[in-house]
């Protein structure tokens, strides 16, 4: 399945590259046409572009310095608290504990050191009050709230969490929702760094098998927050710097809606394939059950038939035995009568 997914995503990546090349060629043709325009038309083009900016007020949000962040993580690890630390204000409802406060995606915006930063909080992975399909659909909505796509996914953990079965499932679950390329745009965020109590982050990651494997898949990227000190903007600026470095490593791009749609399409295809396999397995099981029922029925009928035949044979044997006994009895009685007659005759003669 993993090989099929890699081949499928490789094909989609080649298609995206082809579309990007075609788009680039179109832009080059457009630039060439602009150069060849008569001077009298150029002022009109400038006015048109200015009017377009007025019509599209959200355009600055996609500037080179802006950053769009999506928070992911289990229930109770402090995603909302991490979002509030980035924002510098308590915009997201946050409570400590194992009960998820966030049941739907929520977006907030802030300016950090002159940079536009938007943060999307999401429901906790393995949310206990939502079925898996509803949960994946709602978390997937974070991509559209970060349109044209998030620059990074912060996968949030509590520093006190240890390697659990759910933690080991997190990379697979995130890839299932967003596609295999998602970890190229992901950073591990360790919350409540003030709880480390002398232990280094490197030691924490090395001791936690789930964190260690995920860190490797995320290119070794991680960051630590002290959520108690929300006035410490240096830790937020450091995080933005790590995001900048990651974006540069990714060629300057961000996770796109198209990638998500590809992942959604693949997930649907996988779900349909899984349903078909389950249906086939169900039919095979039902067939085996019916065959077993038929086999037992035949064996039961044969056994009952054999028992009936044995009973019938036994009845016939008993009947024959009684008949034989009756004939022997009659024969003895007849012989006794003849003996008595002979004795009587002898007495008369004497």
From TrEMBL:
SUPFAM superfamilies: P-loop containing nucleoside triphosphate hydrolases. Residues 1-67, 249-350 are annotated as: Disordered. CDD domains: AIG1. InterPro entries: G_AIG1, GIMA/IAN/Toc, P-loop_NTPase. It holds the Pfam family AIG1. Residues 1-56, 262-342 have a biased composition (Basic and acidic residues). Keywords: GTP-binding, Nucleotide-binding. One of its GO terms (molecular function) is GTP binding. It comes from the Eukaryota. Belongs to the TRAFAC class TrmE-Era-EngA-EngB-Septin-like GTPase superfamily. AIG1/Toc34/Toc159-like paraseptin GTPase family. IAN subfamily. This is GTPase IMAP family member 7.
């Amino acid at each position: 399945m993993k090989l099929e997914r890699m081949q499928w995503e490789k094909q989609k990546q080649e298609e995206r590259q082809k579309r990007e090349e075609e788009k680039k060629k179109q832009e080059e043709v457009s630039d060439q046409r602009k150069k060849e325009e008569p001077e009298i038309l150029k002022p009109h083009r400038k006015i048109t572009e200015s009017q377009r900016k007025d019509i599209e007020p959200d355009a600055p949000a996609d500037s080179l310095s802006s950053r769009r962040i999506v928070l992911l993580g289990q229930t109770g690890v402090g995603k909302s608290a991490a979002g509030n630390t980035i924002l510098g204000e308590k915009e997201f409802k946050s409570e400590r504990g194992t009960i998820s406060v966030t049941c739907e995606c929520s977006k907030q915006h802030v300016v950090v050191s002159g940079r536009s930063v938007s943060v999307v909080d999401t429901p906790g992975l393995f949310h206990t009050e939502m079925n898996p399909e509803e949960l994946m659909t709602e978390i997937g909505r974070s991509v559209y709230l970060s349109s044209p796509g998030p620059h990074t996914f912060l996968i949030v953990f509590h520093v006190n969490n240890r390697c659990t079965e759910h933690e080991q499932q997190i990379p697979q679950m995130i890839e299932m929702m967003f596609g295999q390329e998602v970890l190229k745009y992901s950073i591990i965020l360790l919350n409540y760094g003030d709880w480390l109590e002398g232990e280094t982050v490197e030691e924490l990651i090395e001791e936690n098998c789930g964190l260690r494997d995920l860190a490797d898949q995320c290119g070794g990227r991680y960051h630590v927050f002290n959520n108690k000190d929300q006035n410490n903007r240096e830790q937020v600026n450091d995080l933005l710097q790590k995001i900048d470095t990651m974006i540069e490593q990714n060629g300057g791009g961000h996770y796109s809606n198209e990638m998500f749609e590809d992942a959604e399409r693949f997930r649907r295809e996988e779900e349909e394939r899984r349903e078909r396999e389950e249906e086939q397995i169900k039919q095979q099981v039902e067939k085996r059950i019916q065959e077993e029922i038929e086999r037992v029925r035949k064996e039961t009928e044969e056994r009952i038939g054999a028992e009936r035949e044995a009973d019938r044979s036994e009845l016939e044997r008993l009947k024959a035995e009684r008949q034989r006994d009756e004939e022997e009895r009659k024969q003895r009685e007849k012989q006794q009568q003849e003996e008595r007659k002979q004795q009587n005759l002898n007495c008369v003669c004497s």
